[in-house]
Amino acid sequence: MTADDLKNLIAAGLNCDHITLEGDGRHWYATIVSTEFEGKRAIQRHQRVYATLGEKMHTDEVHALSMKTFTPAEWAAQPR
């Protein structure tokens, strides 16, 4: 799976303002910004992202996904 493939899967199932992905094809590191994360704890945000991947997580197409998840306001407050 490519970074574009994974990005498209996440974006198709989650309204995202921003997504960045890095990885080696099996192990991925993502930064995801979405209004859908508002009012949710980190575990709930991650579960929401995992739900967009469905069977891809269970069939090992995506072996590991480490995430940083932000609301738009949290993202805007991040130092750059």
Largest sheet: 3 strands, mixed
Return the domain count.
1
CA-CA gap between termini? 29 Å
State the order of secondary-structure elements, H for helix, E for strand: HEEHHEH
State the name of the first-level CATH class.
Answer: Alpha Beta
- CATH T-level fold name: GMP Synthetase, Chain A, domain 3
Oligomer: single chain
Q: Residue-averaged pLDDT, rounded?
A: 92
The number of strands is 3
The low-confidence parts are none
Query: Strand sequence of the main sheet, in spatial order?
Result: 1-2-3
Q: Write the CATH homologous superfamily.
A: BolA-like
Number of helices: 4
The proportion of strand residues reads: 25-35%
Q: Helix/strand/pairing class, anyone? A: alpha+beta
Secondary structure: elements and pairs:
Elements: H1 3-13, E1 18-23, E2 27-33, H2 42-53, H3 55-58, E3 64-70, H4 72-76
Parallel strand pairs: 2-3
Antiparallel strand pairs: 1-2
